[in-house]
């Protein structure tokens, strides 16, 4: 919506196409979970900063590519009249805080809640196998659920990036809202651990990092690649809906979905394979 300030239609469209590459607040929970689990506190800030820088650099590169080949034409200078800077008043700060908090509560109570219910259903059903017998364990049930089947279908595409079907399910869930990636990963990696705790006489509670390493072979490199993929791939459904409204059609929103998926795969493949060659993984 901020692109409305641009008078040139081509510049406005290019801005809409590259804006999803910038890190937003919805991606922060994913960054926080993975950085806290796999990286030392001494470098955590640098890891987070690198993600923001990569997003900005990719946006600049893609804007140049789109403006040169996809939407060529004369560039127009952009002049913006900035308002007078004043110290904010306590009232304006409180109003702004309330507006942002209310917007997030609305999102959490509608989109995120609805998607969480959908994911619960996909993880829960079916409750019996093809022969009508109940699954022997919760792990087996999740693997054969609709979500598990979906994850295993896309696993061959994600395997070159170091991801398994569980990560694939989380990424699909993140299409609606990136915050869902965290809850989905937490659910998937806690099931097997809960069964192990029930069988042990003196159970030891494992951290998310331990469970992810044991069940999916996660490493700091894989965690970083997952954050990169979350940064680049499809913007959430709300952004796609706004793009559809601003462009008066589905052409450019669907193009954005497609190119961000391809770009995310290519960038993450290069980073992951490069990391393995350097012995980082």
UniProtKB/TrEMBL annotation:
GO terms for cellular component: plasma membrane. The keyword Calcium does not apply. Coiled coil: none annotated. It comes from the Bacteria. Residues 105-248 form the Nucleoside transporter/FeoB GTPase Gate domain. GO terms for molecular function: ferrous iron transmembrane transporter activity. Pfam families: FeoB_C, Gate. Residues 48-100 form the Ferrous iron transport protein B C-terminal domain. The chain crosses the membrane at residues 21-41, 47-66, 101-123, 221-242, 254-272. Keywords: Membrane, Transmembrane, Transmembrane helix. The keyword Transmembrane helix applies. PANTHER family: FE(2+) TRANSPORTER FEOB, FERROUS IRON TRANSPORT PROTEIN B. This is Ferrous iron transport protein B. It comes from Syntrophomonas wolfei.
């Amino acid at each position: 919506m901020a692109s409305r300030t641009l008078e040139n239609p081509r510049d406005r469209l290019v801005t809409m196409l590259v804006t999803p590459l910038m890190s937003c607040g919805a991606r922060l929970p994913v960054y926080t979970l993975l950085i806290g689990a796999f990286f030392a506190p001494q470098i955590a800030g640098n890891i987070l900063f690198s993600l923001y820088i990569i997003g900005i650099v990719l946006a600049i590169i893609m804007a140049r590519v789109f403006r040169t080949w996809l939407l060529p034409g004369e560039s127009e200078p952009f002049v913006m009249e900035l308002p007078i800077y004043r110290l904010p008043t306590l009232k304006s700060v409180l109003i702004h805080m309330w507006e942002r908090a209310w917007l997030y509560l609305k999102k959490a109570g509608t989109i995120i809640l609805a998607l969480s219910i959908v994911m619960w259903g996909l993880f829960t059903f079916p409750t019996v196998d093809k022969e009508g017998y109940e699954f022997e364990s919760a792990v087996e049930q999740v693997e054969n659920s609709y979500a598990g089947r979906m994850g295993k279908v896309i696993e061959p595409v994600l395997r070159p990036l170091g991801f398994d079907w569980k990560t694939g399910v989380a990424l699909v869930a993140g299409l609606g809202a990136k915050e869902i990636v965290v809850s989905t990963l937490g659910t998937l990696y806690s099931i097997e651990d809960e069964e192990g705790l029930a069988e042990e006489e003196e159970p030891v509670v494992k951290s998310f990092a331990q469970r992810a390493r044991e069940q999916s072979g996660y490493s700091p490199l894989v965690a970083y690649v997952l954050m990169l993929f979350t940064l680049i791939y499809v913007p959430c459904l709300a952004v796609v809906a706004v793009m559809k409204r601003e462009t008066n059609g589905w052409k450019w929103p669907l193009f954005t979905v497609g190119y961000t998926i391809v770009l995310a795969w290519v960038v993450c493949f290069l980073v992951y394979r490069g990391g393995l060659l350097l012995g980082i993984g």
